Prior knowledge:
The chain is of the alpha/beta class. The chain has a single domain (8-222), classed as Vaccinia Virus protein VP39 (Rossmann fold). The chain is built from 8 helices and 12 strands. The chain has helices spanning 26-32, 35-45, 61-70, 82-94, 123-127, 143-150, 163-166, 189-202; strands spanning 8-11, 14-17, 52-55, 75-79, 101-103, 105-107, 111-114, 137-142, 154-159, 177-183, 204-211, 216-222. The strands form 3 sheets. The protein has a 7-stranded mixed sheet with strand order 5-4-3-9-10-12-11. The radius of gyration is 17 Å and the shape is globular. The N and C termini lie far apart (51 Å).
Amino acid sequence: MQAGSAVTIDFYGMKLSTRSPMQINAPVTLGSCGESEEVRLCLDYLRCDDKVLLAGCGMGSLACWCASIVGPEGLICYEAQPALVEYARWAVKVNEQQLDVRQGALTLEDGPVPFTTLPTRTWAGSGLVGAYPDGATVPGVDTNRILREEEPSVLVLDIEGAEFGLIPELVMPTVRLIILEIHSNYATQPEQERMWGYLTDRFRVAKVFHFGDGVKQFVALERDLS
């Protein structure tokens, strides 16, 4: 696709367009990364009175869908990848949503953290035009601080490496539902077992979608806080 060309598609009622500050082949991305499964989990499990912490909003379609259910005031939205932040903001604008897409990587403390571009075989790596220099950093956000201050009832998280170690360190007494996009090939078996042990001690697995060759899963976990 040449720079300056555009494709606008309808994705579960949300508009996506490649005419943005950067270029992603949206139809290919949506057909190859399992984005629809994540949307389906949100449609099945989100409630209108939820407050959602969304980390890894990617192209912005999931953020727009969450906002359509809980309202813009019910959504806290982060994306670490600099170019995808601009794409997500464009999607928000195209869909006339009043959302603040914040650039930041969820970590255990505030401050800059190294940014690592995904391998080119992943949709984000192969779909982006341009590359990020070695040593680039992005803002790190203290996840437990956000959990304390915002008291979300839902956590939606894209797990691609460091998040395997992040999850077991989280304190989330107000969270009733977690929706995860898990890339298991980015973690060792002990890292995966530690994360799953933490989650299944506190939540029950409600639904799982296996995508592609099985290294990617979309999972909904819930618990009763009453």
